[in-house]
Design goal:
CATH architecture of the largest domain in chain B: 4-Layer Sandwich
Radius of gyration of chain A: 14 Å
Largest interface: A-B, 18 and 24 residues
Low-confidence stretches of chain B: 626-637
CATH class of the largest domain in chain B: Alpha Beta
Number of helices of chain B: 13
Shape of chain B: rod-shaped
Strand content of chain B: 15-25%
Shape of chain A: globular
Strand content of chain A: 25-35%
Distance between the termini of chain A: 47 Å
Order of helices and strands of chain A: EEHEHEHEH
Structural class of chain A: alpha/beta
Helix content of chain A: 40-55%
Number of strands of chain B: 25
Number of strands of chain A: 5
CATH topology of chain A: Transcription Regulator spoIIAA
Oligomer: heterodimer
CATH architecture of chain A: 2-Layer Sandwich
CATH superfamily of chain A: STAS domain
Structural class of chain B: alpha+beta
CATH class of chain A: Alpha Beta
Number of domains of chain A: 1
Helix content of chain B: 40-55%
Strand order of the largest sheet of chain A: 1-2-3-4-5
CATH topology of the largest domain in chain B: Phosphatase 2c, domain 1
Number of helices of chain A: 4
Radius of gyration of chain B: 69 Å
Chain lengths: ~120, ~625
């Protein structure tokens, strides 16, 4: 089983990446390679949304890849938010906590609410 | 074998191909030339025949004219008949005899004058006579009857005169009368010897024979004297009757010839005779045959020359190919060190030679690389084996029994490849505590193994003075976060057992929940997890405390167990694990738990290679004498 990575950058401040398939020791290299091209498009301080609705399985190698991505974005004052993981993937996030649970959202609305909140904190 | 060489085969193919072309075009040429030759011969023969026919016609026309004049004279001057025919015979030396035969006025008293005849003697003198002396009455003879009916004259059939020893033919014409239409017949006879002489004197090709046919199909004259007076063959006569000119006559279809002949004929005007020229086909085509044979010989010579040239040229062009073929055989034997001929040409052979040379060098390069890679891999394999030994040396013995016999441990570590990222360890913390750990480093292979080594080494160092798993994990986490740009992490379950009381404090850094087998039931111990170690410096790890009773066993494991699967199989899962553990008999040793779980997992994947590393640790509390309720509390650090 392979991993499919798609991305969309309507605005420089926010890019959405869709993952489909399995993210494990065999495929995390593909994700790293794809993100090497995608992350430079995100502004410093921007948001990278990883839509995981199509992700069926994540292994510890995949988690490491996501954690590393989060760290790189964080170093540029950016955020990496995870959206809509399937239950079995969500469970892995809950247990391993390789990324903060607060940055995992069940829906776009929830994510937007979070971003609005963050925005208000900064501007307010 | 000669034909093994491309050059020989090419030369042979050229020879065969050209031979086929030569035969086909030669055949067409022969047919065409044959027709041409036949047409040419026909033209020549027609010219000869026409000229001969004209000459014959002129001669017979002369006789006919004389007879016509005679008939008109006799019409009014019957009484002068003997004198007239005598004078006319004198004036026309080609005529043999002349008769003036009248219908008798009275058959009872016939007169000599009724049928006077003037005859030329062999010595040239003229003698007068009468047709009355003919063996049979002239007035009832066929020639007379026929003559009476020839108003404008006609040729009688030829006849043989024994007395003069020659063939004669007469021209007869009816003598018109004043009161009656016909009173007699004027007849002039000529010898056919002149016709035979004329045929003999014709300028005609060698082997050609001329003949003249009369109305009845009999030969009046023929170059073959024995044919004179005989009848022409059926195919000849039917061709003349149908005017098929020229006609090919063969012995097979009834011709009176010994070989196929071509016959060209023309009718002779003024008579109903036909002049013909017969030529043997063999002779007609003799020249053609000769020419054709010469052409064929030349063609064969040319073919042999072309083949020879092809052979030589191809040999020259192909010579480097032969060398290349030998060299390719060298390559197939693994010998790459040889000299190639220097080819400066830019054609296919030149390109092939250069490409072959390049290929040979590249192949040598690839073989070198492959050998180097193989050596490299060998070295890597042996290094990995050493690394594996070192890694295994980092973990303690699989089995441990406390000195007082209360606590017993059994563990197993099975890396999926030579080295892995799973770990277990246990060590004493002071006199009254024992620390146990089971962990799983993210990813697999060498990076994971190194991170595992770092973790296990740090853990022993850091834990020396700590007594709470929360403190141990917190300190370990802070150490592992240092310089961890690649975000490697380890999930770790840490337990600290108080050896006097059986109190077990558990803390989890993102690890799988342990299994508790106690009092006949098997459950997952719900330990709230903190973040995996190495990612978040600020992480906190809540502690769950429980008291073990005699015979209780805690099983700690990594996801190599809970997520075991083969191919697209479903993951093994926590439920299957609980099921497996629950089937272990009460009071069994920790070794029995470990073995049972490993056996069940192996059975589940049906012998497939492990997908992930496996670490498994079972801890059994043997304090059978202890009493009291299970103490169960969570302490947040």
């Amino acid at each position: 089983m392979t991993l499919i990575v798609r991305s969309e950058s309507p605005i420089p401040a926010r890019t959405t990446v869709w993952l489909e398939g399995r993210l494990d020791a065999e495929t995390f290299g593909d994700l790293d390679a794809a993100l090497r091209d995608i992350t430079p498009l995100v502004d410093n301080g921007g948001t990278l949304v990883m839509d995981l609705s199509g992700l069926e399985y994540i292994s510890s190698a995949g988690l490491r890849s996501l954690a590393q991505l989060r760290k790189q974005m964080h170093d540029r004052d950016g955020r990496t938010l995870l959206l809509n993981p399937q239950p079995q993937v969500k469970k892995v996030f809950d247990i391993v906590k390789a990324v903060p649970i607060a940055e995992v959202f069940a829906s776009v609305a929830e994510l937007d609410q979070y971003l609005d909140h963050m925005q208000r904190q900064i501007t307010g | 074998m000669v034909l093994r060489s491309v050059a020989s085969r090419l030369a042979l193919a050229v020879l065969l191909g050209s031979a086929i072309v030569l035969i086909v075009t030669g055949g067409l040429l022969l047919t065409h030339t044959r027709e041409q030759t036949l047409r040419q011969t026909e033209r020549e023969a027609s010219a000869i025949a026409s000229s001969a026919a004209n000459r014959i016609q002129a001669r017979v026309d002369g006789v006919a004219k004389v007879d016509q004049v005679l008939a008109s004279l006799l019409s009014s001057r019957r009484d002068e008949a003997p004198a007239i025919i005598h004078d006319i015979l004198v004036a026309n030396p080609e005529i043999g005899d002349i008769s003036a035969a009248f219908v008798p006025r009275d058959r009872s008293s016939l007169r000599e004058d009724d049928a006077p005849v003037a005859r030329r003697k062999p010595d040239g003198g003229i003698v007068m006579g009468s047709r009355l002396s003919d063996p049979e009455p002239y007035w009832s003879s066929p020639w007379f009857i026929r003559g009476l009916n020839c108003d404008r004259g006609c040729w009688q059939p030829p006849f043989r005169s024994e007395e003069r020893n020659e063939t004669l033919v007469g021209f007869s014409m009816a003598i018109p009368g004043k009161n009656v239409p016909v009173i007699g017949v004027a007849d002039a006879t000529i010898s056919l010897d002149w016709l035979q002489k004329l045929l003999g004197g014709l300028t005609k090709p060698d082997h050609a024979s001329a003949f003249v046919l009369d109305t009845n199909g009999e030969f009046l004259a023929h170059d073959w004297v024995s044919y004179i007076g005989t009848r022409g063959s059926r195919p000849l006569l039917s061709a003349v009757a149908e005017n098929r000119n020229p006609v090919r006559i063969t012995p097979e279809e009834g011709g009176r010839v010994s070989e196929p002949v071509w016959v060209y004929f023309v009718p002779i005007n003024g008579t109903r005779w036909t002049f013909g020229l017969s030529m043997p086909e063999r002779q007609v085509l003799a020249d053609l045959r000769h020419t054709y044979m010469v052409d064929i010989m030349l063609g064969v010579l040319a073919l042999a020359g072309v083949s020879l040239i092809t052979l030589v040229v191809t040999r020259r062009l192909m010579a480097p190919l032969g060398v290349l073929a030998e060299r390719a055989e060298n390559v197939s034997r693994g010998d790459l060190d040889f000299a190639l001929p220097v080819v400066r040409r830019d054609d296919e052979v030149g390109r092939l030679t250069r490409a072959f040379d390049q290929m040979r060098h590249q192949l040598a390069g690839h073989i070198d690389t492959a050998k180097r890679t193989a050596r490299e891999q060998e070295r890597m394999a042996s290094e990995l084996e050493i690394a594996r030994q070192i890694q295994l040396a980092l973990i303690p013995e699989a089995h441990w029994l406390a000195e007082d016999g209360r606590l017993e441990l059994h563990a197993a570590l099975r890396p999926a490849s030579a080295v892995g990222g799973d770990l277990y360890t246990y060590f004493a913390l002071g006199a009254r505590h024992v620390c146990v750990m089971v962990g799983d480093v993210s990813d697999k292979g060498i990076p994971a193994a190194l991170f595992m080594a770092r973790t296990i080494t740090l853990a022993r160092t850091i834990a020396t003075h700590a007594r709470s798993p929360s403190d141990i994990l917190g300190a370990l986490n802070r150490e592992l976060c240092k310089g961890n740009d690649t975000c490697m992490f380890v999930t770790l379950l840490c337990g600290v057992v108080e050896t006097e009381t059986g109190l077990l404090a558990l803390a989890s850094a993102g690890h799988e929940q342990p299994v508790l087998h106690a009092g006949g039931s098997t459950i997952l111990i719900d330990v709230e997890t903190g973040p995996a170690l190495g990612l978040d410096r600020e992480a906190r790890y809540p502690v769950r405390v429980l008291t073990l009773l005699g015979g209780d066993t805690v099983l700690m494991y990594t996801d190599g167990v809970s997520e075991a699967h083969a191919g697209n199989q479903k993951l093994y899962g926590a439920h299957a694990l609980l099921e497996s553990v629950s089937r272990v008999e009460e009071g069994a040793t920790p070794e029995a738990f470990v073995d049972r779980v490993l056996d069940d997992v192996d059975a589940y994947v049906e012998g497939a290679a492990a997908y992930d590393d496996i670490a498994l640790l079972a801890l059994t509390w043997h304090d059978t004498g202890a009493e009291g309720a299970r103490l169960d509390a969570a302490v947040h650090s």
